[in-house]
Predict the 3D structure of the following.
Amino acid sequence: MCSTSCGMVLRTLSLLAAQCSQPVADLCKKKTVTAFTDGDRGGELIIKELLQVADVDFIARAPDGKGVEELVQKKS
């Protein structure tokens, strides 16, 4: 069993647009939230919108000009 400090992502939620619904904002008040977005203007807009309506604990972005789906897993 993993405690909250193990660094694993246990649940995810996907937003497909820069608008954040009220249920998502309410959920963000109850949970630890990490926003992970593309490294483009759209990702920047999503972060700005989220920060206006929700409590975001951490922000992670793909490198400039890259989409999240373009990232590869780092091998040891």
Remarks:
- The two ends are 25 Å apart (CA to CA).
